[in-house]
Design goal:
294 residues; alpha/beta; 434 Repressor (Amino-terminal Domain); Endonuclease, Chain A; six-stranded mixed sheet; 14 helices; 49% helix; elongated
């Protein structure tokens, strides 16, 4: 199996994307030879679980491990080997979010890397305003409730990181963000009336950005298919990367990239967007809540 020109041409978008691309190429090579993860792990003195994490792009790559795997997979062409081994340094590079490593769980760091590379993010939230749409003071109130935020310094660092994540959506080549927010979010106060009013004013301002769409899943809709909980779907400009569904839990996260899973969530999001009041009614709904907190 040869490394395609498309693979190399699209091997950009940050270290997370490069790790996923390199991992997916290693998976294709392994599967083409009919080699199990267990046998691949044995070849590099590791477990099948490490092979799985490498193929999912969830860990950094050691040149020796990749070199041994390429030998096992029968990749003998010098140019092909050099192309893959040459990606390792860039794939292992640290993104801006690593400076927040003291307050950033590893499982969430993976998501930040994916978010940075995504061209479209669709998200549904039932507890609070999605992080990318939070005002600074609202974010501070939300983060203060976290059991893992042990000091005001931790809280401030997390708020700064969340505000940093927002910057990309104000750039000229900003990705598309489509958020559906359950009405319960607007009823649930995080902070005093001033904070809630500021948050709703911030949401109204965000609805006016061309790359941001916000809908409110009102109580009048009744039940809906996404009642089970929040999720996000990330789509990437790189053709080799499948959509990724992200489900955050209390102290971990789940990532799905198999088509059957991502397609099901995409259908659910489509149904939500169809059932909820259209985006052109969002500002009016939000202004109704603005009066509540005045």
């Amino acid at each position: 199996m040869q490394v395609t020109q498309d693979f190399l041409a699209n091997s950009s978008g940050g270290p997370t994307v490069l790790r996923i691309l390199l991992g997916s190429q290693l998976r294709r090579l392994r599967q083409s030879r009919g080699i199990s993860r267990h046998d691949a792990g044995y070849a590099i003195r590791a477990s099948h679980a490490k092979i799985s994490r490498m193929e999912l792009g969830q860990v950094s790559f050691k040149p020796r491990d990749v070199d041994d795997l390429l030998k096992l997979y029968g990749v003998d062409d010098p140019a092909e080997r050099e192309a893959l081994l040459g990606l390792i340094s860039s794939a292992n590079a640290q993104g801006w979010w690593h400076k927040y490593g003291d307050v950033l769980p590893q499982w969430f760091g993976v998501y930040i890397g994916l978010e940075e590379a995504a061209s479209v993010i669709r998200t549904f939230e039932v507890q609070f305003v999605p992080g990318l749409l939070q005002s600074e003071e609202y974010a501070r109130s939300v983060i203060r409730l976290s059991r893992t935020a042990t000091s005001e310094e931790d809280v401030t660092n997390r708020v700064n990181m969340r505000m940093h994540r927002r910057r990309r959506f104000a750039e000229s080549q900003a990705p598309r963000l489509w958020a559906v927010i359950d009405e319960a979010v607007l009823h649930r106060p995080y902070g005093d009336d001033d904070i809630m009013r500021g948050q709703i004013e911030h949401l109204i301002a965000m609805t006016r950005r061309p790359n941001i769409t916000i809908q409110v899943a009102t109580f009048a809709m009744g039940g809906h298919a996404a009642a089970g909980g929040p999720f996000s779907i990330l789509r990437f400009p790189t053709p080799q990367l499948p959509d990724v569904v992200y489900l955050e839990q209390l102290s971990s996260a789940l990532y799905f990239d198999k088509y059957d899973d991502t397609h099901r969530y995409a259908q659910t999001m489509d149904h939500l967007a169809t059932q909820a009041p259209p985006p052109n009614e969002t500002e009016g709904i939000l202004r109704g809540f603005l009066e509540r907190y005045s």
